[in-house]
Amino acid sequence: MSTNGKPKFAMYWAASCGGCEIAVLNIHEKILDVDANFEVVFWPVAMDAKYKDVRAMPDKSILLTLFNGGMRNAENEEMAHLLRRKSQILVAFGSCACEGCIPGLANLSGKQQLFDTVYDTSSTLNPQATRPQLEVTVPEGTIHIPYFNPVLKTLAQVVDVDYFMPGCPPESHQIGAVIDLVIQVLQGNAQLPPKGATIGAGGSTVCDECNRTRDVKTIKKFTRIQDLVTIDPELCLLEQGIPCNGPATRSGCGALCPHAGAQCIGCYGPAEGVLDYGARLMTAFASVIDSQDPVEINSILDGLVDPAGQFYRFNLASSLLRASRSAWQSK
Amino acid sequence: MNRDTFEPVIIGFTCNWCSYRAADLAGTARVKYPPNVRLIRLMCSGRLDPTFVLKAIAGGADGVLITGCHPGECHYLEQNYKALRRYHLLKRTLAQMGIRPERVKLVWASAAEGVKLAEEITTFIEEVRALGPLDWPGMTGESIAVAPGFLAAEEVGV
Amino acid sequence: MSTEEPTNPSPDQEKIGVYVCHCGSNIAGIVDVQEVAEWAGERLKDRGVVVSRDYKFMCSSLGQELIENDIKDKGLTRVVVAACSPHLHENTFRTACGRAGLNPYLCELVSIREQVSWVHTDKDAATTKSKAVVSGGVERVIHHEALEPLVVPIHPATLVVGGGIAGIQAALEIADAGFPVYLVEREPSIGGHMAQFDKTFPTLDCSACILTPRMVSAGGHPNITLLTWSEVTRVDGYVGNFTVTIRKKPRYVNTDLCTGCGICQEKCPKKIIDEVYEAGLGYRKAVYTPFPQAVPRYPVIDRENCTYFQKGTCRACEKFCPTNAIDFTQQDEFVTVEVGNIILATGYDLFDPRRVTQYGYGRLANVFTSLEFERLSNSAGPTNGAIVLRDGVTTPASVGIIHCVGSRDRNFNNYCSVICCMQGLKFAHIVKERTGATVYNFYIDMRTAYKAYDEFYQRVLEEGTLFVRGKVAEVTDAARLPGEDGKLIVQVEDTLASVQRRIPVDMVILSSGLQPRHDAKEVAHLFGLSCSADGWYIEKHPKLDPVATMTDGIFIAGCVQGPKDIPSSVSQGAAAAARVLGRIQQKQIALEPVRATVDEAKCSGCRICNNLCPFNAILFHEDRMVTEINPALCQGCGTCVAACPAGAISGTGFSNEQILAQIEGLLLLNLQPLHATAAD
């Protein structure tokens, strides 16, 4: 099995920002527990290793793999399949792997449109309008880059996932709690939760952890938080007309953003059992609009300037529609 | 698929007290309309969760018809207004997803308006036919199974 | 005839029976029912269908037996019937399942008749759609749960709102049966509009003579608590258990001391035009009973017009009252009562014919409304029964009676007000009898449908009343032709003779239509009822259930449900009473278990659902910061289920799982893609 008898641990990043890695490092001295209890065999941010080393490992030899990042390209998918084979427990770690997160927002655009934005905007010097090619021959030989999926997928849309840890990133104290749990399981003092469970998060939504006072909701106006002159620090943000995603977002983060004076943008994903996160927000916000007249309703809705962004910022890739029509139709 | 032979598939939501009865009345009166709409009975249009519309679209429906009691006549007093508000927000969001908002339509029909409902259904079918197939992918071919964790009803342990 | 596939469903899968009804040729004429049944048995096998049959009449006892036997022999855990509308036979099949030992709520009836065979002509398309409908039903029923109805007790007291003839009838029947009734009336006396009439058609009984004995019975009945000069302000609760708050407006008369002697009315110096009872034709005092036979006999003081309340002087009534019953310090008194059932019999308002400006009411002195005429012809009225013009003295030599004023008219009310033709004939007869005047009735259709009504019409014809079929264009005093000076001219197209007529008369009576009370919508809202767009209250079923409403425990009777004559109002009052008595006898009632519940562990206390329930079923607990739903108050609309952003509210009977599964089934996703995808 392992060289020193300790169970093996891996962490990999696909299409991500690196914040999940930082969040793990942010568990501070708990990292010593990780080191004491696991042998880290593959963690690109922290140590040098090659894909061929992973391929050489026996199947199921890694006990626990924390996989963050979305499935943007063929390399991401290949690594997902590879690490699935090599791991006993595969955790979709962080919002990108669980639900697509910010990279998933690219699903609002077609592939060509994405490339045009990245490779040809005013801040990019690209006089020949070069676009990435799957295969290019250079003097040294032929280079390949992975195929870019027109639609970003979540980890579970590609491989079988054992557990999900939401958050952008998952809060370090939650990561610490999960590590503690796994260590307890290793020591025979605890049971793993049922397969498919969401771990490192709460069982309700952010409002459960939020200290702001609240009443019944009657929204006469939606407004962007930066357009308000004063914000009541005690009162529920939604009641002040600020579209806060807290009511639909899974708890576990401690309502950090509302306590800091900003609206929840939903990085912990949907509550347990919810099929489409955006739909929950749509229905909740719409239900409490204080008007029965279609003209007035629409004028109030004008205050929500970007519904798809508001409702699907983190969750688009795992929503029911998953991507816009142009994204689906692009090649 | 040849546009001339395109037969849209439309999911329709009715409310038990008004529009479902209107559909029944159209039946008793033998009013004819095309067979493209498949109806679901809810107790009230206020039960309409946008998730249902999204599910229908993602599942391959070319259009969705939402029906309920006229404003002021809701059997549950005012719940159709909630449906109205959700409908408007849903259309805006669908537009951003590249779905023509005309594919989702809200129609009020009282229990006595069998003929009217049949007419509205017929009109809507033609409107969706003119828009062409939606062909939303994702339910075919590759697996769209959303992560089991997001569907699990079990309590979360940690 | 039937398809039985040998199957080995996985042990955790349901065993589903599918039954496709021919309904004679109603369904089978368009839908290939055998093919649908075979298809379900074959293609939905993997979904748990273990037996799939088609049969001529599933609702027959033989048809039901098919289901019952399959449940017993094959251990079915779910049943899907594809037949007519659930509004017809859902109960039939649920009961059949119950008889065989399967929970009735594990049965789903999907319509392939009203919504397929009766409305589509393409047989192939109808058959395909039927398969989809069955597939939707199968997927849905998998997620059904065994439910038990909620049983609640019925409080034996009843609230009757409205003391007109319908309300009085209802109250008397319930009280006579031995149960307590609260009869609430907003005027100072019960009696309603019927107390204003002179004679009633077709018998020409004196209205007060047949009404007042009933009023006296109601007033004196030991089981009836009369709350006149009162209004309901709040209704909480649910069938069997309503809590009603009633505002008793101050009479300024102590009813314990008042003997009804009437001296206060005599002595009161302030005379006011009585707009309500006398329809503006007569006077009353500031302290008054609306009419001599008022029940209860206690007067009220009209605060707006009382010299003491407005200026602080007078107090004549107080001075002269022999029992010191006048009490100017009285306030609103609120009483709260518990009742099991409520009957609304709040009656109608008269259409205001001022709106039909071309008829000149309010502008031309001798144009009268029907209620004004009733007061004229009433021997206890302002003219002691003399039919006279507005000057109070002149007897008309010619009278025109216009039917359908404000009714059957898209500019005003589209419906027929039912009683105006008979009313117009009654007026014709009375005018003829009392004055010998020439009488013209202007009508569109003569609606004299009920017992002895048409005979009355024939009698009026024989008496010499002249009938002109045509809608009156205008009533004017602008004389153009000889003989028209000083008269009212009725301009009308005589459609039977195909001529225009200008008929000069001395007096015009407008047979005004009936319309809902001006505050009908607010009152309906108070009780949790819905009005139609016209404002009449909506009955549970227009043919088969005219006195019940969609809200369990609340019944309607009389004109509040729609225009009708006195016998019909009485019948409805009695019918509503019978329904209530039936409920009271059963002592308890089973409520449909379609309602919402909050999973408190998931509820974050965001309160978004809190103001979404018009039935006040949603409660917020500040201490625990969670929301709870009262299952007895919940009407099962599902709005909160759809609104909860945390998905913490679930609804039985129409759960998310059931509806999402039905969508999948309807789109045949449980089998195969619908059509080839355009992308990739």
Q: Which descriptors apply to this entry?
A:
heterotrimer, A: 331 residues, Rossmann fold, C: 680 residues, FAD/NAD(P)-binding domain, 4 domains, 17 helices, disordered C terminus
- Gyration radius over CA of chain B: 17 Å
Overall pLDDT of chain C: 93
Q: Can you tell me the CATH architecture of the largest domain in chain C?
A: 3-Layer(bba) Sandwich
**Largest interface chains and counts:** B-C, 57 and 62 residues
Question: Main sheet of chain B?
Answer: 4 strands, parallel
CATH topology of the largest domain in chain C: FAD/NAD(P)-binding domain
Domain tally of chain B = 1
Low-confidence stretches of chain C: 1-9, 673-680
Q: Specify the CATH homologous superfamily of the largest domain in chain C.
A: FAD/NAD(P)-binding domain
CATH fold node name of chain B: Rossmann fold
Number of strands of chain B: 4
Structure description:
- The complex is a heterotrimer of chains A (331), B (158) and C (680).
- Chain A has 13 helices and 9 strands.
- With 331 residues, chain A is of the alpha/beta class.
- In chain A, the strands form 3 sheets. Chain A has a 5-stranded parallel sheet with strand order 2-1-3-5-9. A two-stranded antiparallel ribbon of chain A has the order 4-8.
- In chain A, a hairpin with a 2-residue loop joins strand 6 and strand 7.
- Chain A is globular.
- Chain A starts with 7 loop residues before the first strand and ends with a helix.
- Chain B has 5 helices and 4 strands; from the N terminus they run E-H-E-H-E-H-E-H-H.
- Chain B has one domain: Rossmann fold, CATH 3.40.50.
- The C terminus of chain B is likely disordered.
- Chain B has a 4-stranded parallel sheet with strand order 2-1-3-4, sandwiched between helices.
- The relative contact order of chain B is 0.22.
- Chain C is an alpha/beta fold.
- Chain C folds into 4 domains: 147 residues, Rossmann fold, CATH 3.40.50; 157 residues, FAD/NAD(P)-binding domain, CATH 3.50.50.60; 69 residues, no CATH class; 165 residues, 3-Layer(bba) Sandwich (FAD/NAD(P)-binding domain).
- Chain C contains 17 helices and 35 strands.
- In chain C, helix 6 links the parallel strand 7 and strand 8.
- In chain C, helix 2 packs across helix 3, helix 11 packs parallel to helix 12 and helix 12 runs parallel beside helix 13.
- Chain C is globular.
- The N terminus and C terminus of chain C are likely disordered.
- Chains in contact: A-B, A-C, B-C.
- At the B-C interface, helix 1, strand 2, helix 2 and helix 3 of B face helix 4, helix 5, helix 16 and helix 17 of C.
